[in-house]
Amino acid sequence: MMLPDSIELEVVTPERQVVKETVSEVQLPALAGYLGVLPGHAPLVTELGVGELSYRKGKDTSHATVVRGFAEVLPGRVIVLAEAAERAEEIDLDRARAARERAEKRLANPNASGTDWDRAVFALQRALTRLQVAAKGGGVAAAQQEHHPAP
Ligand code: ATP
After folding, report:
1. What is the pLDDT of residue 147?
2. Residue 102: predicted pLDDT
3. Shortest-distance Cα residue to atom 8 of ligand 1
4. What's the longest Cα–Cα distance across the chain?
5. Fewest Cβ atoms nearer than 10 Å: which of 1, 4, 46, 47?
6. What is the Cα–Cα distance from 42 to 143, expressed in whole angstroms?
7. 150 has pLDDT over 50
8. Is any atom of ligand 1 closer than 6 Å to the C-beta of 106?
9. Which domains does the chain possess?
10. Of the candidates 47, 64, 62, 56, the residue with the CA atom closest to the CA atom of residue 11
11. Ligand 1 atom nearest to 123, measured from its CA
12. Which of 60, 70, 56 is nearest to 11 (CA)?
């Protein structure tokens, strides 16, 4: 049997298609930890957490955020269905920083009535993942922006 030498990667959310590319390697944020997928991988379905999805094409590695969902892995194909996903260059840093601040404030005051702890932790996870992905994937400018925020 011929094994495929590439992977058709598709990342979709209820709103849109976020990624559709032919790649040589994919890293998925599975619940149990990061899962590396090469062409010819055995079929599986896995649940995804909140984390970074990376994919390599030749020498270029791209990064995206994934917020909960499922991935189906087939020998020549990876399909990701996520609640939300953004490619690194699409991430709005100011928005992610504001979301991180809101979540941190809620978590700093856990006894405040009305604080939904799990919800605040989940929001913080999304914001931190977005900041991490933006810093990596957006290149030097984004990384510098993240380390030296405008006053
Ligand atoms: P916020 O509090 O800023 O709305 P959130 O974590 O609550 O952030 P989500 O519910 O995870 O946002 O996502 C809602 C939609 O907004 C999704 O389509 C997601 O891709 C998009 N989104 C959220 N944050 C950002 C961001 N910082 N940059 C780009 N798109 C974002």
Report:
1. 52
2. 96
3. 99
4. 61
5. 1
6. 36
7. no
8. no
9. 7-88 (2.60.15.10), 92-144 (1.20.5)
10. 64
11. 6
12. 70
